[in-house]
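Q: Structure tokens for this one, please.
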Amino acid sequence: MVGEVSLRGYEVIDSTASSYTCQASLVINGVLQAPLTNSITYQNTLTPLLTSISPRFGSVVGGELVTFNGAGFSTSTADYSVVIDGRVCAVQTATASQFTCLTDKRPGLYPNPKLEIKIAGKGSVATQGLTFRYVNYWSEPLTWGGEFAPIEGDMVYVPKGLNLLVDVDSTPVLSAVVVEGGLIFPSNPNPNHMRTFDAHYVMVRGGLFEVGTEQFPYTSKLVITMHSNRSSPELPIFGNKVIAMYNGVLDLHGKPRNPTWTELDITADIGATTIKMIRDVDWEVGEEIVIAPTGYFNFEAEQRTIIAVDRTNPSKPILTLDKPLEFQHFAGIQTFGTTGQDFIEMRAEVGLLTRNVIYRGDPETSAANEYGAQIMVHSNGMETLTARIEYVHFFNVGQAF
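A: Here is the predicted structure, written as tokens:
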């Protein structure tokens, strides 16, 4: 005879409802016992929810004030237990939708970042996969053992459990960078801030190479330049002048642009210095565009720089170009038949070339030698690699030999 049964666990359901009720049943030795009279109701309002963390990175020496936003939090700082990578983060302020905590120092290597938040009377906070990463700053002498930062020709090794934050404006041309931990490029608050990174080889072996994420794209400017030539030593499988991925995660996410390409509203004739778009664009002065040919030859494609944008009619902006067009670019509808019942709509496409993140081969030799940069991803077939790339300008890439 069973006097009491305790049920613990979870059930995964395909539902977006704010609450869900399930009926528990008891089976002993394969025999269904008398139905349980009470049901179990899950309510998402009872679970505190984390929606964002700012900043997402902080120094291993501690002392960083981190803000957590969400819903269902407690207003009492005494109710919180926040542990990041096994180190207590002391809560400073708290409201129902936000709390802050001050990080502790975290010495050593920690291969798998972990965030645990518990609130008294509410249980564990649903973190939705968000985490805070302890990092070593490239600019800090402590990162390099109190010595000098790398110089030209040096090799950099990022071991598993260490996240190296590239917070300097430029790096020397490094011989190689091996990433088994994390190599992270943070955005600068100034969208026009420029950062450059130069290397001959980057090998990611089970680590993380991050330039923004899907949720937090890179918002300032970054140019990653790869060096080497045909006679340079090659990595097995991957070659040279390459970001080589063997397992791990590659995230390259520039600032989203809308749209990346569109069409002309009306024909742009030879000598025109303005073009009218068929829809709204977020393109800006100083950015480069390309206008596709509508003739018989590919060389009639023309690249221009925007010097002014007239948004008097926001849905059909007019772009002023830095120099006149050399070819006609057609845009219109041609009708056929006695009543015009048949038609063909043809318009020259216009694409935005400018991106805030650029991945390229070195400008000195890449085009002349037909030997540019490349990214190669390879895994052992166990789906241990993730590569996500969007809104990035690839220039001087590809290798003819």
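A few notes: Residues 366-369 form the longest helix (4 residues). The chain has a mean pLDDT of 93.
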